[in-house]
Design brief:
Structural class: alpha/beta
Organism: Sphaerisporangium album
Membrane topology: Single-pass type II membrane protein
Bound molecules: uridine-5'-diphosphate
Cofactor: NAD(+)
Number of strands: 13
Shape: globular
Helix content: 25-40%
Subcellular location: Golgi apparatus membrane; Golgi apparatus, Golgi stack membrane
Oligomer: single chain
Pfam family, one: Epimerase
CATH architecture of the largest domain: 3-Layer(aba) Sandwich
CATH class of the largest domain: Alpha Beta
CATH topology of the largest domain: Rossmann fold
Number of domains: 2
């Protein structure tokens, strides 16, 4: 199989998962945001090959290919704001090339899409039938619209050329091997907490995300390669929604080695603390301005994933964060 972006955070986990299952994996990565260090343990394995190439340029892979998984793209808000044209090319020309390879090889195709296609959602939780609320010229548009175009292209290749396609919409995946400097909330908070720095909470911290541990996302993608979804997009994520301020508090407790009663600190699920109270975190957090058009709420409806893929997330937020913190400690 071919995994574009296979040396990135999620791609490297996916590459490892498939190699361990006995598959031969060709990982195509430009290493612009990915890193060979993410797949160092696989480099000596005869079933694994790292090809350093840009997915948006012409490329091919010799021999039979049974599946093409297209993940190549900058994925953190900091990276795609820094690389807007590269991000749009990865979603457009890159997706075109990856689909063309799948077509030529008669391979299955899986697109790694994103919850960002829903933009600032007016429906909560988000079902796949929701069309989204995206500003096509906004500060996140290079990523959101690239992925929306990639979904449209995938759908058209399936209709016109009969390529067997799947689309997964991934919601805030986190875990070991995330770049500690890509600016996303989990690596940012963990890095800051381990360094004894205040956690940079953007805005009042009342905005929510539903964080999916990487092993769960990988199994969701594996299930998407096995089950035929008829080309329908499927949400992959966790339905454990947490405010950014609650997340900060949880990471501070976990890095301090304190036992915890859960992400909400013992409150009923779905209830967040009054953001004005700042959790009594005092100078352990530093509030910075909320980036423009930062989505206020995000949580996937996972009904379709359960029905079509027989998949649901298994890892509680606290457990996934504890594993990620342990990895970050070891990596320092
Ligand atoms: N965030 C934050 N502090 C940080 C990084 C992110 O408060 O240092 C917030 C950000 O404003 C957003 C949420 O955390 O509301 C998730 O941000 P991330 O960049 O991880 O992913 P997004 O869901 O925005 O793509």
């Amino acid at each position: 199989m071919v995994i574009t972006g296979g040396a990135g955070f999620l791609g490297s986990h996916l590459s490892r998962r498939f190699v361990r299952a006995g598959a031969r994996v060709v990982c195509l990565d430009s290493l612009v945001t990915g890193s060979a260090a993410n797949v160092r343990d696989l480099l000596g394995d005869p079933r694994f090959e790292l090809v350093v190439a840009d997915v948006t340029e012409p490329w091919s892979v010799p021999g039979p290919v049974d599946a093409v998984l297209h993940l190549a793209s900058p994925a953190s808000p900091r990276d795609y704001a820094r690389l807007p044209l590269e991000t749009l090319r990865a979603g457009s020309a890159g997706t075109w090339n990856a689909l063309t390879l799948a077509r030529e090889k008669g391979a299955r195709f899986l697109l790694a899409s994103t919850s960002e296609v829903y933009g600032e959602p007016s429906e909560h939780p988000q079902r796949e039938s929701y069309f989204g609320n995206v500003n096509p010229v906004g500060p996140r548009s290079m990523y959101d619209e690239a992925k929306r175009f990639a979904e449209a292209l995938t759908t058209s290749f399936s209709r016109v050329h009969g390529v067997r396609c799947g689309i997964v919409r991934l919601f805030n995946v986190y875990g070991p091997h995330m770049s500690l400097s890509d600016g996303r909330v989990v690596p940012a908070f963990i890095g800051q907490a381990l360094s004894g720095l205040p956690l940079t909470v953007f805005g009042d911290g009342g905005q929510t995300r539903s964080l999916c541990y990487v092993d769960d996302a990988v199994e969701g993608m594996v299930a998407s390669c096995v089950h035929d979804t008829g080309g329908r997009p499927v949400n992959i994520g966790s339905d454990e929604e947490v405010s950014v301020l609650d997340l900060a508090a949880l990471i501070l407790r976990l890095t301090a080695g304190e036992d915890d009663t859960g992400p909400s600190g013992g409150r009923p699920p779905g209830r967040t603390r009054d953001p004005d109270a700042s959790h009594g975190l005092g100078d352990q957090v530093r509030h910075l301005p909320l980036p423009p058009e930062d989505p206020r709420r995000r949580r996937p409806d996972l009904t379709l994933a359960r029905e079509l893929l027989n998949w649901k997330p298994q890892t509680a937020l606290r457990d996934g964060l504890a594993r990620t913190i342990q990895w970050a400690r070891d990596a320092r």
